[in-house]
């Protein structure tokens, strides 16, 4: 049985679709109900902070995926992420299931050059420090041989089914409405964007290959391009002018006074004012996987979730 903790989010949904394609037995675990017409999919209510509920929900699992997204608040992260990670580790010890954690790149901090799986952790933010802590918690146990675990990391998303990314919310949705796009930071800097369906496929492949255990993997992501290139490509696909409004750090901070989630983005501004180069060549070579190009990904979004 494949069990997904924090089910219902964009990555979890993409992973679920991949597992459904092979008729796998899937257990979705979340606090809110998830309805599925697939007879192989079941839902179990559990709080990620409650170990006993998680243990009950994950009984019989061969692989447990953690794809949770918490409220975008550093205080919530500091209080809850270490507890959730310890629960995840304990589940691996007690059930014997393989563990796969979907992570981001905050722990690397500001990197001069490409971010790779062996890039040292030098967080530039409070949230990055928390991410470094929980990543080390998991991989220290894997190195000690107490669990079998891996970390899958993605860059900033696009192609979500919930608009839970600034690209979807501020660029694709706006162009679909024939409105001006918004861009955080310097559009002349390089940046990668991970396509959500590729994140699901990447997680799926890790789950199908036990020899990938006890490693960090960067999920398949197209090469970095400038924000300007992304904007021009999106505008051409949507048939609009490449009009864009650049949001600087002060604007983020000012808006954040009225929106806590936006305020949580301010400390991450360095990711958008500097080059952000995410290298997924390790995964691509190991699994002979070619990431979806931005051209193809944006075109698919313009025909489906964010129709032009």
What does this 3D model show about the protein?
By secondary structure, the protein is an alpha/beta fold. The protein folds into two domains: 2-155 and 193-218, Rossmann fold; 158-191 and 223-278 and 293-303, UDP-galactose 4-epimerase, domain 1 (Alpha-Beta Complex). It is 43% helix and 18% strand. The chain contains twelve helices and 15 strands. The protein has helices spanning 10-20, 51-58, 74-95, 126-144, 166-176, 196-208, 227-238, 249-256, 260-266, 270-273, 281-287, 294-303, and strands spanning 2-5, 26-30, 41-45, 63-66, 98-103, 114-115, 149-153, 156-158, 181-184, 190-191, 193-195, 216-218, 225-226, 244-247, 277-278. The protein has a seven-stranded parallel beta sheet with strand order 3-2-1-4-5-7-12, with helices on both faces. A two-stranded parallel ribbon has the order 6-15. Helix 1 links the parallel strand 1 and strand 2. Helix 3 (74-95) runs parallel beside helix 4. It starts with a strand and ends in a 5-residue tail after the last helix. The mean pLDDT is 95.
């Amino acid at each position: 049985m494949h069990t997904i903790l924090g089910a219902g989010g964009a990555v979890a949904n993409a992973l679920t679709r991949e597992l459904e394609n092979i008729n796998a037995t899937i257990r979705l675990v979340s606090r809110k109900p998830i309805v599925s017409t697939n007879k192989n999919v079941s839902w179990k209510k559990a709080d990620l902070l409650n170990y006993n509920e998680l243990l009950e929900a994950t009984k019989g699992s061969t692989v447990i995926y953690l794809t949770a997204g918490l409220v975008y608040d550093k205080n919530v992260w500091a209080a809850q992420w270490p507890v959730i990670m310890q629960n995840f580790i304990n589940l691996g010890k007690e059930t014997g299931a393989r563990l796969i954690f979907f992570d981001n790149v905050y722990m690397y901090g500001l990197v001069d050059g490409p971010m790779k799986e062996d890039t040292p952790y030098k967080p530039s933010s409070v949230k990055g420090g928390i991410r470094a802590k929980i990543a080390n918690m998991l991989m220290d146990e894997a190195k000690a041989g107490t669990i079998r675990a891996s970390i899958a990391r993605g860059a900033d998303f696009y192609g979500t089914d919930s608009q839970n990314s600034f690209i979807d919310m501020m660029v694709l949705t706006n162009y679909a409405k024939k409105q001006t796009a918004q861009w955080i930071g310097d559009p002349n800097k390089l940046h990668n964007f991970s396509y959500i369906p590729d994140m699901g496929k990447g997680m799926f492949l890790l789950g199908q290959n036990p020899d990938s255990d006890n490693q960090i993997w960067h999920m398949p992501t197209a090469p970095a391009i400038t924000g300007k290139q992304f904007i021009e490509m999106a505008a051409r696909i949507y048939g609009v002018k490449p009009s864009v409004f650049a949001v600087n750090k002060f604007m983020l901070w000012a808006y954040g006074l009225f929106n806590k989630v936006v305020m949580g983005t301010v400390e991450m501004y360095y990711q958008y004012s500097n080059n952000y180069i995410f290298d997924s060549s390790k995964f691509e070579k190991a699994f002979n996987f070619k990431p979806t190009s931005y051209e193809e990904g944006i075109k698919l979004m313009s025909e489906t979730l964010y129709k032009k």
